[in-house]
Amino acid sequence: MDVLAPTKTFPSLVDSNFRLQVPHNSNAIHFTTSSLPKRSSRSKLSSPSTPTLSTHSNGHPSLSSANLSGDAAGNEVLRRLVRNGELDSALRLLESIFLRGTDPPDIIPCTSLIRGLCRSGRTAAARRVLDIIETSGASPDVITYNVMISGYCKSGETDEALNLLHRMSVPPDVVTYNTIFQSLCERGKLDKAFEVLDHMLHRACAPDVFTYTILIEATCKESGVGHAMKLLDEMHAKGCAPDVVTYNVVINGICKEGRLDDAIKFLNNMPSYGCNPNVITHNIILRSMCSTGRWMDAENLLSDMVSKGCNPSVVTFNILINFLCRKGLIGRAMDILEKMPEHGCTPNSLSYNPLLHSLCKDKKIDRAIEYLDIMVSRGCYPDIVTYNTLLTALCKDGKVDVAVELLSQLSSRGCRPVLISYNAVIDGLSKVGKTDEALGLFKEMEGKGLKADTITYSSLVAGLSREGRVEEAMNMVLELQGLHIRPTAIIYNSVILGLCKARETDRAIDFYAYMVSRGCMPTESTYMILIEGLVHEGFGDEAVDLLGELYSRGVVKKTSMQNVVARM
DNA sequence: ATAGGGTTAG
Question: Where do Low complexity bias regions lie (predicted)?
Answer without folding.
Answer: 32-55
